[in-house]
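dumping this here so i dont lose it
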């Protein structure tokens, strides 16, 4: 058991089984007391493609998706803010809530590689442990930015017991590969193709009802 809180942030546009099963498996493997999904607020940056769904829709879908997993809850703190949040700020506000209990920030390998571009990213290690999760299609051996490779070398541990207190460790957790992305889901919906099995039924029905991602 780990008395800590796991956190999976994301745009969740939409939430899918890649997010949900990964978070649920990490929660089970580490025996986490809590696991919170934190949908990003508006606006968030997307390099190309259609307009993002609003934070109201993304929050609603996250709640529907989490409803299938008893271990998962949704934390609306970023989605309810008028401005975008930085992860370092979110973790600071969570830290005030949980006191000295550990925070474990779950990151897929694609997101982990972008860490050096995040605001005050080095401060994250003072606030939380990082749980690094492989993602299908992301090369686990791809070169990381040198400062991130250094941080990984200095902070990595294979001992999950070290995640039960403190902060600043990086731990790799193996999970069942889920080759699903939100980008692919949006492409399929736009092309009027089925997305059955990629996200919970309630999420798919929400997308249909609100006509999301159709153009
Ligand atoms: P998009 O395709 O719009 O970029 P996404 O599917 O990558 O979206 P995000 O909301 O950006 O979803 O991801 C949130 C977090 O979940 C990130 O840390 C990401 O690496 C992780 N993640 C998303 N999909 C998977 C997956 N299939 N397997 C493992 N981790 C995942």
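and the seq i came up w/
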């Amino acid at each position: 058991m780990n008395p800590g809180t796991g956190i999976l942030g994301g745009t969740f546009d939409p939430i899918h089984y890649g997010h949900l099963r990964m978070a649920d498996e990490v929660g089970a493997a580490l025996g986490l007391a809590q696991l919170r999904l934190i949908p990003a607020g508006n606006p968030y940056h997307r390099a190309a493609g259609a307009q993002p769904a609003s934070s109201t829709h993304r929050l609603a879908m996250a709640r529907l998706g989490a409803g299938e997993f008893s271990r998962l809850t949704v934390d609306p703190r970023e989605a309810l803010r008028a401005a975008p949040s930085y992860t370092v700020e979110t973790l600071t506000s969570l830290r005030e809530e949980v006191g000295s209990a550990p925070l474990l920030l779950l990151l897929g390998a694609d997101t982990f590689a972008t860490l050096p571009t995040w605001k005050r990213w080095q401060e994250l290690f003072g606030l939380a442990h990082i749980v690094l999760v492989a993602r299908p299609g992301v090369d686990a051996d791809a070169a990381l930015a040198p400062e991130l490779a250094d941080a990984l070398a200095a902070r990595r541990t294979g001992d999950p017991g070290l995640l039960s207190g403190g902060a600043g460790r990086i731990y790799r957790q193996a999970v069942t590969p889920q080759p699903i992305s939100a980008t692919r889901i949006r492409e399929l919906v736009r092309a009027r193709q089925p997305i059955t099995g990629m996200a919970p039924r309630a999420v798919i029905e929400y997308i249909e009802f609100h006509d999301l991602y159709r153009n």
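The chain has a mean pLDDT of 95.
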